[in-house]
Design brief:
Layout: E1 13-16, H1 34-47, E2 51-54, E3 56-57, E4 63-64, H2 67-80, E5 85-88, E6 110-113, E7 118-119, E8 124-125, H3 129-141, E9 145-150, H4 153-164, E10 173-178, H5 188-201, E11 206-211, H6 215-225, E12 229-232, E13 239-241, E14 244-245, H7 249-262, H8 270-277
Parallel strand pairs: 1-2, 1-12, 2-5, 5-6, 6-9, 9-10, 10-11, 11-12
Antiparallel strand pairs: 3-4, 7-8, 13-14
Helix pairs in contact: 1-2, 1-7, 4-5, 6-7
Amino acid sequence: MADNSSSTSPCIICVAITGSVPRKEHNPAVPVTIGEQIESTQEAFEAGATIAHCHVRDEDQNPTSDPGRFARLKEGLEKHCPGMIIQLSTGGRSGTGHERGGMLPLKPDMASLSVGSNNFPTRVYENSPDLVDWLAEEMLQNDVKPEIEAFDASHIFQAVKMQGEGKLKGPLHIQFVMGVKNAMPVDKHVFDFYVETVKRIAPDATWCGAGIAQGQILLNEWSIAAGGHTRTGLEDNLRLGKGVLAPSNAALVKKAAELCEKYERPVATWQQARQILGLRQVA
């Protein structure tokens, strides 16, 4: 079982600002235009988030992998959130094949990388070995640190294998995604197994917990209590509590920051977050 004692190490808060699924009709606070995304991220940054996990949308709120939109978002975030870690999504809801990595030449600090397939609510989230290898190579070539999105225990083992083969540069940063319908549920025993597995087979890795919908706050608490890092934001969860819509990404970040205080974990500054993740420092 994982050691759930409190830790005094800084906790990195990642904010997933938009995602591919939530729309304005689900929660008016979901930022979908580039301007809205920049403003929402700046508020979250000021509330304590130091990683911005980013998707972009087209004019009809539909997800896209358009590198031009990613470029404008990245430029705006660098201007209004100086020092914040920019992490772009290569997720499968926004495009297919190599289209999913079209933004990697923009050289963001980080990008998401799913190293295996799994079920989503109504479809298979397909990540073929050839595509995963190509995305990983693009990240190596552009000096982009991958965030391994582990939807299943096998994805942790696969990421470690890829690192051993030189396909991923270490140390790894692994995110446990729990609560996606038809995939891994929010389960404390599985979470503890994930933590212990990372400690055993990738002892130099950092890790983060991400819960979907009502599981978000629970994963925030488990991760912070266990000494890891955590993710929040409107991509994964639209509510502050039962029947109460979150008014902003910043409001969800503040809840995570309150849990850090509860467990005597300082919220990492962007300088600390970059040091923890082995990313380049910026002026």
